[in-house]
Write a structure and sequence with these properties.
Layout: E1 5-11, H1 15-26, H2 28-32, E2 38-45, E3 62-64, H3 68-71, E4 76-81, H4 89-98, E5 102-105, H5 108-125, E6 129-130, H6 141-148, E7 154-160, H7 163-175, H8 179-189, H9 197-200, H10 203-217, E8 219-220, H11 236-244, E9 247-258, E10 261-272, E11 284-291, E12 295-302, H12 306-325, E13 341-342, E14 353-362, H13 367-377, E15 382-386, E16 396-406, H14 408-418, E17 429-433
Length: 437
């Protein structure tokens, strides 16, 4: 028996939720050409719904502060969770699935930590868990990996997954402004939150990388184990040096499977100017994926915003509605794999890379000779040294060195000794230089 109407309930009505509702309304004619059952928003639940402007919402939608009116309503087929945060979103999604409802979520924080368990629950309940909006907003990267290249064996994936940090880095490079100044501008323009910690410390990008790792390799990790470095330590001098080396600086997320060992990282990285990733500026995201058979593919677009993310959510709703219409919800596993494997440890790459090191030291004689000796003792060679005197402050001296290619293990051993030196004002800033991006 064919379905005439598929009812939708929303948990949350902030920027992302309201964006999805607008897409459902404004693109209704186009959606109806692609889907037989009519999509109807029945109820929107939000704890602060009284403070939201809901006058523009059509079709006699009910508004409530009580989420159980969505979760327990037998007429609602699809629940859209756009509240964010790990709890109570996790509990609400589980309750909705237990009621036989499929779920659409953009909750990257929750999926990075609890995604495997939620995917298993969806499979056991024979419902769908759709997650396209959780990574890279308007870029349909998850669907591309899960279905578009389902036959591929992914070798590596890397990219720019956070629009806020990419905007800040682009502005710092173009204007020569300090990080703090550029962050304030990003907040003023709405690109950064009042509390930007998740973005600028790389945590948001880390969660997205964990989700991509599940789809690319069928493995999940404890996200706290992913080596993660934010952008807060970067200065105009770093960009000046990168420019001299024909590079730019981007917050790069990468995942590779080497001899069955998973290597993950989130770090500001010097990227050659001729790389496609170097040309990704402002609040845009990009992902570069390499497959064993098909080679390299590149995905680019807006990483956030009510419009791009709203399209991703509604596209997931349409996919689930099609499944429900033929009585086959959950036909495709959430992460593309029948079973995810828990990866206990994250390996350290043995690949040799050049590195950028910035030292801030007390201005004393013999400093460079001492550092060069320690590096040499660890079989690491200096390539060049750069000092921008305009950034010298009082008795402090800042200078940058570029190292010849070395391994992470060798560099870590050298840094362990270097950090005991009494002339260091702060720990060295260490950035990889990746010519393969």
């Amino acid at each position: 028996m064919s379905r005439e109407v598929i009812n939708i309930g929303f948990l949350g009505f902030g920027t992302v939720g309201s964006g999805a509702v607008k897409i459902l309304q404004e693109h209704n004619t186009e959606i109806s050409k692609r889907l037989s059952p009519k999509l109807k928003i029945k109820t929107i639940a939000s704890p602060n719904i009284a403070n939201r402007d809901t006058r523009w919402v059509k079709d006699n939608v009910s508004f409530t502060t009580d989420v159980t009116q969505v979760i327990n309503d037998p007429d609602i087929d699809i629940v859209v969770e756009v509240m964010g945060g790990r709890e109570p979103a996790n509990s609400y999604i589980r309750q909705a699935m237990a009621q036989g409802k499929s779920v659409v979520t953009a909750n990257k924080l929750l999926l990075a930590s609890d995604g495997p368990a939620l995917a298993e629950l969806a499979q056991s309940q024979k419902v769908s868990l759709a997650i396209e909006a959780s990574v890279a907003g308007g870029i349909p990267i998850l669907n591309a990996i899960r279905e578009g290249i389902a036959a591929e064996k992914v070798v590596s994936i890397c990219g720019i997954l956070n629009g806020t940090t990419n905007f800040i880095l682009t502005e710092m490079e173009n204007s020569g402004a300090l990080f703090s100044t550029t962050l304030a501008e990003a907040q003023k323009l709405g690109y950064a939150e009042a509390d930007p910690t998740l973005d600028i410390e790389g945590l948001d990008a880390r969660d997205k990388l964990a989700i991509l790792t599940m789809l690319c390799f069928g493995r999940y990790v404890d996200v706290k184990k992913i080596p993660t470095q934010g952008i807060t330590k970067l200065t105009p001098a770093d960009f000046a040096y990168a420019a001299q080396s024909r590079c730019t600086i981007k917050l790069i997320c990468s995942a590779r499977l080497v001899n069955q060992e998973l290597i993950l990282s989130v770090a500001p990285t010097l990227v050659p100017r001729n790389s496609l990733l170097a040309k990704v500026n402002g609040s845009f995201n990009a992902i570069m994926l390499t497959g064993e058979a098909g080679g390299q593919t590149f995905y680019y677009g807006r990483g956030a915003g009510s419009g791009p993310t709203g399209v991703a959510i509604v596209s997931d709703i349409i996919r689930i509605a099609r499944e429900i219409a033929v009585n086959s919800p959950g036909i495709c596993p959430t992460f593309g794999y029948q079973n995810l494997v828990h990866q206990e440890e994250i390996a350290i790459s043995s690949k040799a890379l050049a590195y950028f090191l910035r030292f801030t030291v007390a201005d004393k004689p013999g400093i460079i000779a001492k550092l060069a000796t320690i590096l040499s003792d660890n079989n690491i060679s200096l390539d060049s040294i750069y000092q921008e005197k305009v950034y010298k402050q009082r008795d402090y001296l800042s200078f940058i060195t570029m190292l010849e290619p070395t391994t992470q293990q060798q560099l870590a051993k050298a840094l362990e000794t270097i950090q005991t030196l009494d002339f260091l004002i702060e720990p060295p800033l260490v950035l990889p230089i990746d010519d393969n991006l």
